[in-house]
Design brief:
heterodimer; A: 552 residues; MetI-like fold; globular; B: 370 residues; alpha/beta; D-Maltodextrin-Binding Protein, domain 2; 16% strand
């Protein structure tokens, strides 16, 4: 009986935290929108901001995905094929963009492509406020995914397989080997990377808002900038739009999520693996890969470089004034409070999300091995914890804003409102790291411990924690980083200056283009976020379990 | 040893997370020690620059209330938050709802009456839209199109004599306006166009035809005034700074914006207000007591504060609007007053007409711009 209660806790918490606010919000939205859902869909085409938003969102995500695969695949191939000096460092540089908060990327790309930027001055390229700019930023972001997911598959294939293929008529030419040998090897990993890229481009908000400029609306942005959503009467049109887009997002994201789990399930390698080192070729006569790889590394760090450089300049002149202002208590744009807020939200996110993900993963991993109802329950729990993946950040924000205010108004001003959003968004990330590790635990350890009469606490501290230390730390860092960079939901929920986090501050500072100091302060805030994220990322790399390189 | 490391990390993180509960509300309450605090006074507002830190500190010291600002993005969001929480208000004072939004606020019964005896004599413009005892005007201004005279040189491009002129090739992609669903100047200007085209000589077209022609002519629509004026408008002060685009030569702003330009530009500006009859909207911004508050005495004091000498004498330089109190006006230094445009006739829609028509007009605007 105690066991039943124990396994029910995560489900109850997840329902209260994630599912309930969202469902209340949906009900509220359909109450507030004065037309039926089908009319809501057809009205979309007849309004400013929403007409064409679905088409634009799909086009933007599709082109971003294609570009990401086109650039990422050669890089992953060269990374997997050749032995590069400083291999780990190169991989870290290429995959860094993925963990950079979206507001930092926004700042980086505005200073790279924006008006009077180095690129636009040198090559007379006017990319700001074009779709191309957003595609470039999305590609920059997601190439990391392709490298991370595809490189290991290439690097770990047993070389003897390739040797044998060379001798066979089906594999005696390079293109034949590419088609018959390499394509099957990388196919599923590449598909998983492409799906994730699609999902992230699909729900992009900060980049579209700032790089796209006026008139460029994807669904996420058209939903976010709707102040009257959920209010009966005045909010009819806003609610109608958010409801319609929310449902479309839910369907598309849930399908993508299903595809992703399919790819990952079928992607469990059945081919003989070798250790990475034995398979990589020495880097001789590879002039083109060397050149292109150097360019790719430059491209990966350029926006970050310009982010930091921008913090030391005011209206084009070198100055440390912005850093000074950021850390003095009496300037308008002091970063001390926002920095502390950001760190506190992130710390609390870790402190709550990790135990919750642990409990959920434990229940899922234990119960899915059993028969009947238990395993079904485990599957439902897994899906519920992962559900926020199928919601965009803005939709999570609306779930909290509308769902909770429906319960009590005073909840709108509680300081943990943004924390709730961070928690919901970070939870599936933590779960995806902890659950596979939990599943791979050898059950004999636990049996042995129990046979020896160890209490559940002893098992936790002497068996689980030591064995899962690596994944736990990675999950904690991931949750911390997600909270650190979260923008869409926090922006939507922002109610008082006391809640300002660094990404929200960057957004506000950057919307004051006339104030050169505000702009530099935005760069300082972005640099702080960047430095924190990179430190975390480097730490996380050290704790990855062997064989986990292929996951995020 | 590793357990120890984890425990240390845990301790640090707990320390980091605990003080958050105390960080709502202003940190500095010094100067209040002598007398009992009268409690929290919560103020819902957007970036109204007249409410400065100094003004709040002075108010707190004098009245012994602890002011807590709930600051949202724009005037629309002020109304949205107030409506969302109207049965159990999250604020005691609501600041920033203008006459384009007022009727909705009144229909939804957001305000409690205040004692109008604290109100000084007002400019007729400030009391033009509303004279009841539910909200008090604290500033006003006229929303109209501003254009850049370096572009409107009188030869290739002449000063527009009708709003239709902006649909010509000369102005393709060179006019920037704000989205009336998110911005209050944008909303004000939409209302001006409704009235303008209802009263022009041509009965076969209305405002939505003009907006659709503007849409075909590449009008730039931004979410808020700041982006429109400071990033896009070539006559705005953004042009001296890094990152400025200046792709638009006409913008929806205030008739006194050229005055503000001149004031900060040593009596020099290239920006002029277009004061065609009925093409401007007289916007008035209000402060009121939230209905259902338990701090109505404090809220009353805050309204008085918004209309007293300190705020009213400086509002033209803090919030860049006309003061509501009749004793004060725009300063004449540096050409502020001189460069301010004054139309012969503003558009004339009453709050009641606006309240009855706005939903439909917004929908028509939406489809014209789709």
């Amino acid at each position: 009986m105690r066991k039943v209660v124990f396994h029910t806790i995560p489900a109850v918490l997840v329902i209260l935290l994630v599912i309930a606010p969202f469902i209340i919000a949906l009900i509220r939205l359909s109450e507030a929108s004065e037309v039926g859902i089908f009319e809501a869909f057809s009205n979309l085409d007849n309004r400013y901001q929403t007409s064409g938003a679905i088409g634009f969102t799909l086009k933007l995500s599709a082109i971003s995905t294609l570009a990401t695969v086109a650039f990422g695949l050669p890089l992953a191939w060269w990374m997997g094929r050749y032995h590069w000096p400083g291999h780990r460092l190169i991989r870290a540089l290429l995959t860094t963009p993925f963990v950079v908060p979206s507001m930092v990327a926004t700042i980086g790309f505005i200073s790279l492509l924006g008006p009077q930027s180095w690129l636009s001055e040198t090559f007379n390229l006017q990319l700001w406020h074009t779709m191309t700019a957003i595609v470039i930023a999305h590609t920059w972001y997601n190439v990391a995914l392709v490298v991370r997911l595809v490189e290991p598959a290439i690097a770990r294939l047993d070389p003897s397989l390739e040797e044998s293929a060379r001798l066979l008529p089906q594999g005696n030419k390079a293109w034949k080997r590419a088609w018959r040998l390499w394509w099957p090897v990388i196919r599923l990993n590449l598909a998983a990377a492409a799906t994730l890229t699609f999902v992230f481009s699909f729900t992009s908000f900060a980049l579209v808002r700032h790089l796209g400029g006026p008139g460029m609306y994807n669904m996420e942005r058209a939903m976010a900038e709707r102040p009257f959503t959920g209010i009966i009467g005045v909010g009819a049109v806003d609610s109608e739009i958010v409801l319609a887009f929310g449902i479309i997002q839910l369907v598309i994201l849930a399908s993508a999520l299903w595809l992703l789990t399919e790819f990952q399930r079928r992607g469990k390698t059945w081919l003989p693996l070798a250790t990475e080192k034995s398979t990589r070729l020495p880097l001789v006569n590879a002039q083109i890969p060397k050149l292109l790889m150097s360019l790719a590394i430059l491209a990966a760090i350029a926006p970050l470089y310009f982010t930091i450089i921008g913090s030391f300049s005011i209206a084009g002149n070198f100055s440390t004034q912005a850093w000074y202002n950021a850390f003095s208590t009496n300037s308008e744009f002091t970063l001390l409070q926002p920095l502390l807020n950001t760190l506190r939200f992130a710390t609390l996110t870790v402190l709550i999300a990790i135990p919750l993900a642990w409990l959920s993963a434990n229940s899922v991993a234990t119960l899915e091995k059993q028969e009947g109802w238990s395993s079904r329950y485990a599957r439902v729990l897994d899906v519920m914890v992962m559900a926020p993946f199928a919601l965009s950040a803005v939709m999570v924000g609306y779930g909290i804003l509308i769902g909770l205010s429906h319960i009590s108004n005073s909840l709108l001003l509680v300081w943990w409102l943004p924390l709730l959003a961070h928690l919901i968004i970070a939870l599936p990330f933590a779960m995806r790291v902890i659950l596979p590790a939990m599943r791979s635990l050898d059950p004999s350890y636990l049996e042995a411990a129990r046979t020896l009469g160890a209490s559940p606490f002893t098992v936790l501290f002497k068996v689980h924690l030591p064995l899962l230390r690596g994944p736990l730390i990675v999950a904690a860092i991931l949750a911390f980083a997600v909270s650190l960079g979260e923008f869409g939901a926090t922006w939507l929920l922002w109610n008082t200056p006391d809640w300002t986090t660094l990404p929200v501050l960057i957004d506000r500072a950057y919307s004051r283009p006339y104030d050169p100091l505000a702009r530099s302060i935005a760069h300082v805030a972005a640099s702080l976020l960047l430095i924190t994220t990179l430190t975390l990322f480097i730490t996380a790399e050290r704790f990855r379990m062997a064989g986990q390189e292929g996951e995020f | 040893m590793k357990i120890k490391l984890i425990m240390n990390l845990l301790t640090i993180s707990i320390l980091l997370s605990t003080p958050l509960t105390g960080c709502l509300g202003p940190a500095d309450n010094e100067g209040n020690d002598s007398s009992e605090s009268l409690g929290k006074l919560r103020i819902l507002t957007y970036d109204v620059f007249a409410i400065s830190d100094e003004m709040i500190a002075e108010f707190e010291n004098r009245t012994n209330y602890d002011v807590e600002l709930i600051k949202v993005d724009d005037a629309g969001s002020v109304l949205a938050r107030a409506l969302q929480t109207k049965d159990d208000p999250i604020a005691d004072v609501i600041i920033g709802i203008d006459n384009s939004f007022l009727q909705i606020a009144l229909d939804y019964d957001l305000f409690a009456p205040y004692d109008t005896s604290v109100i000084p004599n007002l400019h007729p413009e400030a009391s033009s839209s509303y004279t009841g005892n539910l909200v008090a005007p604290y500033d006003w201004g006229r929303v109209c199109i501003n254009y850049d005279t370096t572009y409107v040189d009188g030869e290739n491009v002449t000063v527009p004599e009708s709003l239709w002129d902006f649909t010509s090739e000369n102005w393709t992609g060179k006019v920037v306006v704000q989205n009336p669903r998110t911005s209050s100047p944008g909303r004000s200007f939409l209302l001006a166009t409704v009235d303008y085209f209802a009263n022009d000589a041509d009965d076969s077209t209305d405002f939505s035809d003009w907006w659709s022609a503007m849409n075909n002519n590449g009008v730039i629509v931004t979410d808020g005034w700041t982006e429109a004026y400071e990033t896009h408008y070539s006559g705005g002060y953004g042009q001296w700074y890094d990152g400025f685009i200046g792709d638009a030569n006409a913008v929806v702003s205030y008739c006194h914006s050229p005055g503000v330009e001149a004031y900060f530009g040593d009596n020099w500006t290239t920006s002029v207000a277009l004061t065609l009859d009925r093409s401007s909207f007289l916007q008035v911004e209000y402060v009121g007591i939230a209905k259902g508050t338990s701090q109505s005495a404090g809220a009353q004091e805050f309204i008085a504060e918004m209309l007293n000498h300190g705020v009213q004498s400086s509002i033209s330089l803090t919030n860049y609007m006309y003061p509501a109190a009749a004793n004060y006006t725009l300063p004449s230094e540096n050409g502020y007053l001189y460069h301010t445009g004054v139309p012969n006739q503003d558009s004339s829609l009453t709050p009641a007409e606006i309240g009855a028509g706005i939903d439909e007009w917004l929908n028509q605007w939406d489809s014209a711009m789709a």
